[in-house]
Amino acid sequence: MKKEIKFLPIFNPNECNFWDKFAVLYKSSIEQTYKTPFGSGTSNCQINDKSLQYIMDQIQQYHHINKSFNMVFAAYDDMKLVGCLVGHVRASRANIQYLVVLKDYQKSGIGSQLLANAENAASFVATKVEITSFAGAESFYKKHRYTLNKNLDFEKNIGSSGLNRVTPVFYCNPKTLTTLSEVSKHPIATIKQTIKPRTPVFIYRNAKNYIAGYGYINNQNEPIVHTRPNSNFAHEQIVKKLLQYKQHSISVR
Questions:
Q1: Which of 52, 142, 146, 207 has its C-alpha lying 20 to 30 A from 218's C-alpha?
Q2: Cα 216 to chain center, whole Å?
Q3: Count of alpha carbons within 13 Å of 238, Cβ hemisphere only?
Q4: Is the dihedral of CA 99, 27, 56, 58 positive or negative?
Q5: pTM value?
Q6: Which band of pLDDT confidence, cut at 50, 70 and 90, is reported for residue 92?
Q7: Helix/strand/coil (H, E, C) string of 116-167?
Q8: What tens digit of pLDDT does each residue of 210-233 get?
Q9: pLDDT tens digit string along 109-130?
Q10: Angstrom distance (rounded) from CA 31 to CA 102
């Protein structure tokens, strides 16, 4: 029986063999969802080891080269990986490469929640998000207000997403580090020492896209929060998100 689904940003997919788990999820999801493979007349969609390895090599190579801009979200039923989204952000555009959910868990809002999480996170940098579409999923994209562009991919404006909520930050660029320094009153050099690549970082942005505070999990696995003056609500929300992340991340390891 399905329990409460946990949604988790994956800051370091190389931990806990996450990519191996994703490979199993991807293969199972595709084979269960599609009765026939692309361009094939066979009765069942089967992904062979060679094609699956190629896909995983491409994902991990891209993630390694552009690790600062990658975003990964996972959905868990207890400790079982049942859904995942893999994407990246470049300049003002985000791309969602893979959005997969096990067939038994489809049509239960998991894909929608993964997509919303990605849009919120991407909106910190990007203004548009594009989906590498799968055949038969057009109605799902349209339901979430995605439209076809000239390249026949589905895209959506996300400029107002991620406001008035806590969202993960997968990459702290120089501009972000400067803002975090302003919030915490710590020198940028100190911020760089405490917030390194793959450090779990969350920010709270208000309705005017103003960073009211941020938090992260330090090397001692402790939640650290910094907020601007008179930002009690932001502080509470960041603390709540950090504790939730810490609890969920431990439970699925």
A1: 207
A2: 16
A3: 27
A4: negative
A5: 0.89
A6: confident
A7: HHHHHHHCCCCCEEEECCCCCCHHHHHHCCCEECCCCCEEEECCCCCCCEEE
A8: 899 999 999 899 999 999 999 999
A9: 999 999 999 999 999 889 999 9
A10: 10
